[in-house]
Design brief:
Layout lengths: L11 H9 L3 H27 L10 H13 L12 H10 L20 H6 L2 H8 L4 H9 L2 H7 L2 H6 L5 H9 L8 E4 L4 E4 L32 E5 L2 E4 H12 L13 E5 L2 E10 L2 E11 L6 H8 L20 H10 L9 H14 L18 E3 L5 E11 L9 E12 L9 H6 L19 H7 L11 E3 L16
Helix pairs in contact: 6-8, 7-10
C-alpha cells in the first residue's frame, strides 16, 4: 500500500521510508549534468584538434625569476669563486637545489686530475719569469710544490733564502713545513729544524734550569737566546712550548703536547703560584694566580718589599711588559690598605671600642671578609697587550702555621693573557705581551672588543667562578713612561 492511498496511516516507519527514497528530480539533474560535461569534452577535443597548441615557456616562472635576479645582483669573488650576495645564498639554501656557482674553493681534492702535464707545457723561462714576481719565500714554496716545478725553477729560490737579508723569508718558508715534520721542531735562532730529544715528555721547568728540547748550538748563547716570556719571578715559558701545544692542536697529538701539561703549582719567596692554559679559537690563553699573606697597616717600604723582587725590581706576581705604565701597582697598594688593622685594647681606647661594638650590635673581627673600594675593585686590562688583572684580598688558611686552622688575610693577583697562535715569535699577541710591538689595541681588537679574556677562560671551566666586575683600562691616560715614571715604585 502506497503512502498516498486513502487507507494509509502515518507512522515512524513510513516517515523514514519517504525520507530515504530517491527522488526523480535528483536523478534527472545528475543525468543532465553528466551529458552536458561529456558534450563539453567532445567539443574541446574537436577544437584542440583543429587549432595548434600554445607555445611552452623556455623556463618555469620561478626559475626564470631566479635567473633574472642572478644576472642582475649576483657578484662572484674572482679569487675563490664564492658568492657575495647573501640573498641569493639564502634562496639557494631554501630551495635545496644544487648550485655550482656557490661554494668554497676546493683546496684539496683527491679525485682531481694531476696537473703535471699542464705545468710541463710551459717552458722553464716562463716559470722563472712568473717566480720573479714572488718574494723569496713564495718562490721557494712554488719550487717545492712538485718535482716538475723544481725542474723548471731550479735551486735559485733556495739559494736566495740563505742570504742574511732574507732571514724573515726563510722562517716564513720553514713555518709552512711544520705539518710534514712531526718529530722535529723549528728553532728560530738557528732558522732550521732540530730533532726533538724529549718527544712527548716536554715539561716546563724553572728559569735557572737549562731544559733544551733539541740539540741546538745556541742553547747557551746569551747573544742569540731562545724567545721566551716571563710568567712570574724565576719562571718563564719558552716559545717552543707554545709551538708544541699549538702544533698538537692543529695537526695531532704526535706533533706536541696538550695544554694541560703546561700547568704548574710552585712557591717561591713567600708567594704561591698556580698556572693553567687553555686553547680558544686557535690561540693559547694563560691564567696565573699569585697569592701571598699580607700583614695589616704596612708601611710604603714594607709594601714594596712584599710586592717587588730585589733582584730585578719586577713584581713577584705575573705581569706583562707594560706593568710600569698605568695603575697596576697603585691598585695593589690600595688593596693592601683595606686589610683590617688591629685595635688598641689598652686603657680607654679598648673600652671605647667595646662600647661601640656593643652599641652597633656586633663584634670586631680582624679576620672578617674585606671589601675593596671603587678604585681597586674593578678588573684592569692592559691597553697595549692582551692581558687582564684582578686584585683581591681574601681570607686564606696559613698551613705553615704549627697551630693549625689559622686564617690570615692574603692578597691575590690573577692575570689572564693571550700568547698567540704559536707560529712565530713575531706574532701579534706574543709580541705585544713581551713589549716587542706597539701596534696592538686590546680594546679595539676583534677578539676582545666585546668580551674579556677572563670571561672566555673561566667559561671553559665550570668549577671556577669569576666575580662580576667591570673591566677598565690599566692605563687610562695612555702614558708610556716605563722606568722614567715614579708611580710604579
Amino acid at each position: 500500500m502506497s503512502a498516498e492511498s486513502p487507507g494509509h496511516k502515518p507512522g515512524i516507519r513510513s516517515f523514514f521510508s519517504n525520507a530515504l527514497r530517491s527522488k526523480k528530480s535528483r536523478q534527472t539533474l545528475r543525468k543532465n549534468s553528466l551529458s552536458r560535461s561529456m558534450t563539453d569534452l567532445r567539443l574541446a577535443a574537436r577544437s584542440s584538434a583543429d587549432e595548434p597548441p600554445p607555445p611552452m615557456p623556455d623556463l618555469a616562472p620561478l626559475q626564470a625569476h631566479r635567473l633574472k635576479y642572478a644576472q642582475a645582483h649576483v657578484q662572484l669573488d674572482s679569487q675563490l669563486g664564492e658568492r657575495r650576495d647573501y640573498t641569493t645564498m639564502l634562496h639557494s639554501l631554501g630551495l635545496l637545489e644544487p648550485d655550482d656557482s656557490y661554494g668554497p674553493a676546493q683546496v684539496e681534492n683527491e679525485r682531481r686530475q694531476p696537473g703535471e702535464g699542464d705545468i710541463a707545457k710551459l717552458s722553464p723561462g716562463v716559470w722563472k719569469y712568473i717566480a720573479s714576481f714572488l718574494n723569496p719565500a713564495d718562490a721557494a714554496s712554488l719550487a717545492f710544490a712538485s718535482i716538475t716545478l723544481f725542474r723548471r725553477l731550479g735551486t735559485r729560490s733556495f739559494v736566495a733564502l740563505e742570504r742574511p737579508e732574507n732571514a724573515d723569508h726563510r722562517l716564513n718558508f720553514l713555518i709552512g713545513l711544520d705539518k710534514s715534520l712531526p718529530h722535529h721542531l723549528l728553532c728560530f735562532p738557528c732558522a732550521r729544524y732540530h730533532r726533538r730529544t724529549q718527544e712527548g715528555q716536554e715539561r716546563i721547568k724553572p728559569a735557572h734550569v737549562i731544559n733544551p728540547l733539541f740539540d741546538c748550538p745556541n742553547v747557551r748563547n746569551a747573544l742569540n737566546p731562545q724567545p721566551k716570556s716571563r710568567i712570574t719571578h724565576g719562571r718563564t715559558i719558552p716559545f717552543t712550548f707554545v709551538q708544541l701545544t699549538m702544533r698538537a692542536f692543529r695537526f695531532g697529538p704526535q706533533y706536541g703536547i696538550q695544554p694541560e701539561d703546561l700547568g704548574r703549582r710552585w712557591t717561591r719567596d713567600g708567594w704561591s703560584f698556580t698556572s693553567r692554559f687553555y686553547i680558544h679559537e686557535g690561540r693559547l690563553l694563560m691564567r696565573v694566580i699569585s697569592q701571598t699573606f699580607a700583614a695589616p697597616a704596612l708601611t710604603p717600604s714594607a709594601q714594596r718589599l712584599l710586592l717587588y723582587s730585589r733582584e730585578d725590581y719586577w713584581p713577584y706576581f705575573s705581569a706583562c711588559a707594560h706593568w710600569r705604565d698605568g695603575e697596576l701597582m697603585p691598585v695593589c697598594k690600595c688593596a693592601l690598605e683595606h686589610i683590617p688593622r688591629p685595635r688598641e685594647t689598652a686603657g680607654l681606647q679598648g673600652l671605647e671600642h667595646k662600647v661601640k661594638d656593643r652599641w652597633q650590635g656586633g663584634r670586631y673581627d680582624p679576620n672578617a671578609l674585606t671589601s675593596l673600594c671603587g678604585f681597586c675593585r674593578p678588573m684592569r686590562r692592559c691597553p697595549q697587550c692582551p692581558s687582564e688583572y684582578l686584585i683581591e684580598v681574601k681570607l686564606s688558611e696559613d698551613k705553615s702555621d704549627p697551630r693549625g686552622m689559622v686564617f690570615r688575610q692574603a692578597i691575590v693577583v690573577t692575570r689572564w693573557s693571550d700568547l698567540g697562535d704559536g707560529t712565530t715569535p713575531a706574532g701579534l699577541e706574543w709580541g705585544a705581551v713581551n713589549g716587542l710591538r706597539d701596534d696592538y689595541d686590546s680594546f679595539a681588537h676583534k677578539h676582545y672588543a666585546k668580551r674579556g679574556i677572563a670571561s672566555i677562560f673561566e667559561a671553559a671551566f665550570t668549577a671556577d667562578t669569576l666575580p662580576g666586575q667591570r673591566v677598565i683600562s690599566m692605563n687610562p691616560k695612555k702614558k708610556k713612561l716605563g722606568e722614567s715614571g715614579h708611580g710604579w715604585y
